[in-house]
Amino acid sequence: MNEEKKHIFDNPANVKRVVRTLVALCAGLFAFDFFYHRHTEISPEKIPGFYALYGFVACVILVLAAKEMRKLLMRKEDYYEGDDDE
Amino acid sequence: MSSFHPALIFFVGAILVALVRGRLQAFLAVLIPVVGAWNILHLHAGIDWNVTLFSYALHPMHVDRLSLLFGYLFHLAAFIGLIFAYRAGDTVQRVSAILYAGSAIGAVFAGDLITLFIFWELLAITSVFLIWARRTPRAMRAGLRYLVINVVSGVLLLSGAIVHYHDTGSLEFGYIGLGSLASWLIFLAIGIKCAWPGLHNWLTDAYPEATPAGAVFLSAFTTKVAVYALARAFPGTEMLIYIGAAMTAFPIFFAVIENDLRRVLSYSMINQIGFMVCGIGLGTQLALNGAVAHAFNDVLFKGLLFMSMGAVLYRTGRINGSDLGGLYKSMPKTAGLCIVGAASISAFPLFSGFVSKSMVMAALLEEHHVVVWFVLLFASAGVFHHAGIKIPFFAFFSHDAKIRVKEAPRSMLIAMGIGAALCIFIGSYPKALYSLLPYGADYAPYTITHVLSQCQLLFWSALAFTFLKLTGLYPPELRSVNLDIEWFYRTAAPAVVRGAVYAVRAMRGAASAASLALLHGMIDSARVTFGPGGRQSRTWPTGTIALLAAFLLGVYLVLFYF
User: Which pTM does this prediction carry?
Assistant: First the structure.
């Protein structure tokens, strides 16, 4: 293992670079809405950054709700096996 | 020129493949869809074979633009899958995969309900071996559950066909629409194979238990035949809009917390079929085109994702997110191809999902289904989250699980490469797919507005993932199972049956004990009365009898006078 070559994401600086690029891209895409008028079909679309905010909020809600679901639905890995072998 | 029935080539081919072994077998298997493609390219809309069997008019082959599109798709899927199985497959898997593909092709060219039923059941029977070929007790049981549920779907279809014939005097498979009992039976039969909410669990139960190559075939055929049948028989059925919307939304929650990455893909498959079902429910030309175009693309990108995860399973023997990570170091090509599939399913511009999913979205707004549109937009962000990011991230990046394996075999890389190339080709040059679509509708996916809003949605979803991951809010991958509808038939129903058996057994025990006690009581009391020394067996002196007779005579005399 010691001789193994360093891979790109073994260096934390590269991971940081990816995150920074993503943040910059997101900021840029958001800013676009102030310069370009999209051809909208429904009124919520007119809000600047509607799609950006919707995507962000949707994913946060999705993950947090799924996390709550775990409390109700999660069982041990062999949950069904115990029944089947009976 | 006269052509062969496209399914026949696969059925004959399967026999030939079964007769040979080794590399020749693997090579011959890949050749079959090629021969099939040569045949199907000579088919054209309007071909209709009539056979009269026991005075029933059957149409074993009926060709129109809808069936042709699915015919092309299934040949393509079989070709890619059999290349993938070149190294990893065995005789059982190759033969059943070829029969399975032939059944799917037969089903989409079926012009009557009986032919459809036959291929419908063959789909279930031929494909179950792709699960059983894993040869684990778990896979055996999952395969059996899969088979039972899919055969039930076929029985419903046959019942519907019989009632339909009784009602209308025709077995033709065309537009049916909801109304009669027959239509509901057929609707439900398709709904099971289509994995509607509540009827979906067979899919997420069985597909992840299949072999690496088996899951690739399974992901291509059964559900897409159901989408085809729905598009032919029930376009414009409003209920489907809401069923489809539910399908897009609920599985993504399960996908986020699921550990088995092929089960994550199974949930995301239901999510993608939801977009198609929704489009079929809308029933406009744009929506129907969108539904079938998305079915076409889904087979390619979902196949690609299942292939990449199959390659990971094949090389590492593991598929749980909690066991994997850092594989980009040893399987960089597989990682890259997986990302192409992930970008396609997430509908990034220039990838295939972008040009088809948006047709359904646009059609929803045209028909003013704003609430459903919001649900589907939520699901679009969600699919990127669980399939677009989660799959590649936890398999190939994340923390390094220190698994060092070889890159996927060359045949697998070729198969994934073809899939990835098609995803990018269709995404970048959508006209190639649009020209094959059954309904005339113009749609231009590449407008600035569309590209911009889709990029905003997706990049900000990625930002949400990064945010949740860095703040530690993102739920870790845990070795676990999550309860779903299957709990009712895997735990609750057996428990109820077991309980009933215990209750009956206990009641029978109590009843026999009680009746035995009663019997003993009767014997005892009989012994007391009639046994030795009992009252009835006592000998009485003659004087007592004479006295008793005199007394009775006296009573009689008294009664006579009054």
Answer: 0.88
